[in-house]
């Protein structure tokens, strides 16, 4: 435990009654005094504050101002259309591997003179190495350990931030701009991991505590731990890397077809092939072997990560596995996501999941479980 | 009141005991969202897994504290598991059981011993 890293807000969390857990090499707050359910509901009804400084922030820029070459290099590693990603906009994308699996999911922003990536804490060293190994020496790449990352999520997020700088109101979902908050330089995107309207704020470590004090002058803000972060993203039907997305799961199997941008699907000499291109495009055309789906357990027991999914209540025909699952505070019932062999999915409404010594029914449902509130 | 190292409390009422989990356990588990209780009249052996509880974060088992027979279960906490968090020592009890050998209660921890365990 003593080797765990701390974010610059560790003392802030401690003072707020956080319970800490080890997560991706960091000691992180899993919940605060009020508990996971009330933190979750507070984020949905007002606004929640998340310290996500353990996540990786990676900056990539061309040494000789050759941005087009950088776009070509990055498009070999991810299936998004960076030519058409406008300045000060970001998109959700993935680093794929040569088998069509996923090394990590991420946000990539066009910051005019460079690209900014936000990647998962657990994968940030892997991602950094993968990027270094696969883009040429003409580009510089930095894993920015000198920056913190905060998220403000929930219906009151806009009011909280626009009281500090009214230009926040002009931002749309997936905008990413450099902006000052009470004299502190920040890079803010209108995005998040909860299904709510919200913002992610990148700020230098030396200013983060001062910024947090300014944010918490607004009484409606509550600090939220990793527990509620997970239940919020699950309700929003968002993938967790390591569970719903892995190096063995393709974006198509994860039901993320939209992540393969239109230009990247076209065959032609002008289009650069991304890693795993052949398998992914083939699945896009012919359908994947597995598909990520939503599950609503009919009884009260949560169906969690790793539980086996069967076609029949006798448990004779195994057809898939639960990849994420837990309790939904908003719906006050359990929810899960899983992957099921596509050959069984047509007209399939009900499946059976083994929990301990029982096999219990669940209905297949559309994702997300809640209505998302992005300011598109 | 007696305690187990598994963070259960046992309160003797005539020839039966009421069993629940301690405040310390309830706090450590966090918000409970699911409780599965044994059937009434079930004969149980010490350390047999007879209750499943799940918090937002994870599932855990509650073990039978001693040998005996389940005489009553608390259906209220099945309907609303949050009662265990709000009142673990009262309304949030789990089950009542008749012990095969009530003198075995003496082997369990008293309050001081339990407090030492959790401090």
Average pLDDT of chain A, rounded to a whole number, is: 96
Strand order, main sheet of chain A: write it out: 10-11-12-9-3-13
The Rg value of chain B, from CA coordinates, equals 13 Å
Q: What are the segments of chain A in which pLDDT stays under 50 over at least 5 consecutive residues?
A: none
Under the CATH scheme, the architecture of the domain at 10-54 and 146-235 in chain A is 2-Layer Sandwich
Strand content of chain B: 35-45%
Largest interface by residue count? A-B, 18 and 15 residues
Classification by helices and strands of chain A: alpha+beta
How far the N terminus sits from the C terminus of chain B, by CA atoms, comes to: 18 Å
Query: What is the average of the pLDDT values of chain B?
Result: 95
Written description of the protein model:
The complex is a heterodimer of chains A (376) and B (119). Chain A has helices spanning 10-15, 36-45, 67-75, 124-134, 157-162, 205-215, 226-235, 262-265, 277-286, and strands at 19-23, 26-31, 47-51, 56-62, 90-96, 102-110, 115-119, 139-143, 147-153, 176-181, 184-189, 198-204, 221-223, 290-297, 308-310, 318-328, 333-341, 350-355, 358-365. Chain A is α+β, with helices and mostly antiparallel strands and 376 residues long. The longest helix of chain A has 11 residues, at 124-134. In chain A, the strands form four sheets. A six-stranded mixed sheet of chain A has the order 10-11-12-9-3-13, sandwiched between helices. Chain A has a six-stranded antiparallel barrel with strand order 14-17-16-15-18-19. In chain A, strands 5-6-7-4-8 form a five-stranded antiparallel sheet. Helices cover 20% and strands 33% of the residues of chain A. The termini of chain A are far apart. Among the domains of chain A are: 10-54 and 146-235, Probable tRNA modification gtpase trme, domain 1 (Gyrase A, domain 2, 2-Layer Sandwich), CATH 3.30.1360; 289-376, Elongation Factor Tu (Ef-tu), domain 3 (Beta Barrel), CATH 2.40.30. Chain B is α+β, with helices and mostly antiparallel strands and 119 residues long. Chain B has one domain (2-101, 108-118): OB fold (Dihydrolipoamide Acetyltransferase, E2P), CATH 2.40.50.100. Chain B has helices spanning 23-29, 75-79, 82-86, 111-118, and strands at residues 2-3, 8-13, 16-21, 32-36, 43-44, 49-55, 59-63, 68-73, 95-99. The longest helix of chain B has 8 residues, at 111-118. Chain B is globular. The chains are: A alpha+beta (376), B alpha+beta (119). Chain A binds chain B through residues 19, 30-31, 35-37, 227-228, 231, 300-302, 304, 326-327, 329, 334, 356, and chain B through 30-31, 33-34, 36, 52, 54-59, 78, 82, 85.
């Amino acid at each position: 435990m003593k080797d765990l890293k701390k974010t610059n807000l560790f003392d802030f969390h401690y003072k707020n009654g956080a319970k800490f857990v080890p997560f991706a090499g960091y000691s992180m707050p899993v919940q605060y005094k009020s508990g996971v359910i009330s933190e979750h509901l507070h984020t949905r009804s007002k606004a929640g504050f998340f310290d996500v400084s353990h996540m990786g922030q990676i900056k990539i820029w061309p040494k000789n101002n050759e941005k087009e070459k950088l776009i070509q290099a990055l498009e070999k590693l991810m299936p998004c259309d960076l030519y058409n990603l406008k300045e000060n906009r970001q998109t959700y994308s993935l680093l794929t591997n040569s088998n069509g699996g996923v090394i990590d999911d991420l946000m990539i922003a066009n910051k005019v003179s460079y690209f900014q990536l936000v990647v998962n804490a657990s994968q940030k060293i892997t991602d950094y190495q993968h990027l270094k190994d696969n883009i040429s020496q003409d580009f510089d790449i930095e894993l920015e350990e000198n920056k913190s990352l905060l998220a403000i999520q929930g219906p009151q997020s806009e009011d909280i931030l626009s009281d500090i700088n009214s230009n926040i109101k002009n931002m749309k979902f997936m905008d990413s701009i450099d902006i000052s908050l009470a004299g502190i330089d920040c890079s803010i995107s209108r995005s998040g991991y909860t299904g709510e309207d919200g913002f992610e704020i990148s700020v230098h470590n030396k200013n983060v505590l001062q910024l947090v004090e300014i944010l918490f002058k607004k009484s409606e803000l509550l600090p939220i731990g990793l527990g509620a972060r997970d239940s919020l993203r699950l309700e929003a039907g968002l993938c967790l890397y390591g569970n719903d997305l892995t190096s063995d799961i393709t974006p198509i199997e994860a039901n993320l077809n939209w992540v393969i941008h239109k230009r990247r699907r076209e065959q032609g000499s002008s289009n650069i092939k991304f890693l795993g291109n052949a398998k992914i495009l083939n699945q896009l055309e012919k359908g994947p072997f597995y598909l990520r789906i939503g599950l609503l357990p009919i009884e009260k027991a949560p169906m969690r990560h790793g539980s086996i999914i069967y076609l029949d209540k006798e448990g004779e025909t195994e057809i898939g596995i639960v990849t994420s699952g837990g309790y939904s505070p908003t719906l006050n019932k359990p929810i899960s996501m899983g992957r099921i062999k596509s050959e069984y999915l047509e007209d399939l409404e009900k499946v059976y999941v083994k929990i301990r010594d029982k096999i219990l029914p669940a209905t297949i449902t559309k994702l997300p479980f809640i209505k998302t509130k992005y300011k598109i | 009141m007696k305690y187990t190292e598994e963070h259960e409390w046992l309160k003797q009422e005539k020839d039966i005991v009421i069993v629940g989990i301690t405040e310390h356990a309830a706090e450590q588990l966090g918000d409970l969202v699911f409780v599965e209780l044994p059937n009434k009249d079930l004969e149980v052996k010490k350390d047999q897994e007879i209750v499943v509880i799940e918090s937002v974060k994870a599932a855990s088992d509650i073990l039978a504290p001693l040998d005996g027979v389940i005489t009553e279960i608390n259906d209220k906490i099945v309907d609303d598991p949050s009662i265990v968090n709000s009142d673990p020592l009262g309304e949030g009890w789990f089950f009542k059981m008749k012990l095969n050998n009530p003198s075995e209660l003496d082997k369990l921890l008293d309050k001081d011993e339990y407090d030492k365990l959790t401090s």
